[in-house]
Amino acid sequence: MVASFLNFKITLIVDKKSDSAISKRDFIKGEKFMFNKRKILLYLGIAVLAFIVSGMSDIVAAEKKRVMVIDAGHGGKDRGVQLNDKIAEKDITLAIALFIQQELAKEKNIDVVLTRNSDKQIDLEDRRKMIEKIKPDFLISLHVNAGFGKNASGFEIYYPALPDMISGEKNDAKNEKSKLQNKLQNDSLKMAKILQDALNALFPRKGRGLRKADLPLTEGLNVSALSLEMSFATNAEEQKKLLSAKTQEDIAKALAKGIKHFFR
Ligand SMILES: [Zn+2]
Question: pTM for the full model?
């Protein structure tokens, strides 16, 4: 488009030089023609400029747009940990995932995609396929903890362990793979630290530390990720907190704040 615009400009300059050889009538006609040509040129110029500017803003937008997948753990028949007669882990994770999406809706550079936005059962393999298709910049899987006795409390953040390199691969391929794995793990650790700080502000001295673990959800996928155990359903005080909409919203706000910080 830019090249044809330049050709047109050259033709017009040549036309202008041949003006003296034509009659007055033709000259007037020619001038009218020239005027029209100038007008066309002007419109073309505007069109080219608009094309370039819109292309540039698309590039800028594409560079800045980040995709965040929030995985609300469990769903449907897979209830997870039961908090009381009616409410289970699957309800808490969904409520918080929806709050996070709502909280980040106003962020132009972050797109939040949920693995589920209703009470439906999605098995691990389908979630993995979904993530593989979306290729998010980051994935957070939400869960509620249980066990370790009634006194166990606080939140835990798990980030994926570096997978073993496949033996028999050429060194270059190995290097590329380990570079990518390092980047994914560094990003995961960076996000884990940011979310740890964000949650510490909400639940002081409740962090149980960052833990490296195999995350079944991201096994075999090239994605920066972490899994968050938000509190203990088996701890009376935390169970009560988790059941309150206020705490669910506070957790979501803290996580959204951390996510914004990470992508800044
Ligand atoms: Zn769970």
Answer: 0.74
